[in-house]
């Protein structure tokens, strides 16, 4: 079994912030899907708060907490830019809403008509993923 390692540049909070800042230096992300939370989210918030593109709309979706269950959210980030922070998970929609959609989704899985086009980008090219404007969803995968 191959052991996943953290990139050397991410071994410190400063290294992580620099890597994130480099990734968004040209374009502010319109969508952040966060499976990590914890200190990774805090580094992301710090980078977004420093950004000069105050007109950018960013939707930040908290999905998982692999890096930790808590993250501090700086108030100045919320006041300095257009950012919407939401969660995605069992509690983000009612059970009735999810159950109402289930038959159609299952039928489309079964008949093969459910197509979710995506373009995969390795983590080392995350900046390209955020700048992706194609019709497919950009998906960032480990290097």
Task: Summarize the SSE layout with pairings.
Blueprint lengths: L12 H11 L7 E4 L3 H13 L6 E6 L12 H6 L1 E6 L7 H17 L6 E5 L3 H6 L5 E5 L2
Give a quick set of tags describing it.
single chain, 143 residues, alpha/beta, three-stranded parallel beta sheet, 5 helices, 5 strands, 18% strand, globular, disordered N terminus
Through-space gap between termini = 16 Å
Low-confidence stretches: 1-6
Backbone structural class? alpha/beta
Helix/strand order = HEHEHEHEHE
Side by side, the strands of the main sheet go 1-2-3
Could you explain how this protein is built, in words?
There is one protein chain. The protein is of the alpha/beta class and about 140 residues long. It contains 5 helices and 5 strands; from the N terminus they run H-E-H-E-H-E-H-E-H-E. The strands form 2 sheets. Strands 1-2-3 form a 3-stranded parallel sheet. A two-stranded parallel ribbon has the order 4-5. Strand 2, helix 3 and strand 3 form a beta-alpha-beta unit. Helix 1 (about 15-25) crosses helix 2 (about 40-50). The longest helix is centred in the C-terminal third of the chain and has 17 residues, at about 95-110. The radius of gyration is 17 Å and the shape is globular.
């Amino acid at each position: 079994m191959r052991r996943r390692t953290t990139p050397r540049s991410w071994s410190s909070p400063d290294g992580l912030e620099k890597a994130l800042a480099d990734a968004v230096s040209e374009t502010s992300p319109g969508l952040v899907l966060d499976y990590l939370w914890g200190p990774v989210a805090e580094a992301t918030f710090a980078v977004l708060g420093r950004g000069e593109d105050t007109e950018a709309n960013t939707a930040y979706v908290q999905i998982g907490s692999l890096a930790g269950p808590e993250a501090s959210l700086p108030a100045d980030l919320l006041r300095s830019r257009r950012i919407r922070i939401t969660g995605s998970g069992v509690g983000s929609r009612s059970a009735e809403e999810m159950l109402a959609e289930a038959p159609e989704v299952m039928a489309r899985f079964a008949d093969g008509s459910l197509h979710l086009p995506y373009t995969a980008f390795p983590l080392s090219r995350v900046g390209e993923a955020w700048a992706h404007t194609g019709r497919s969803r950009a998906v960032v995968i480990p290097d």
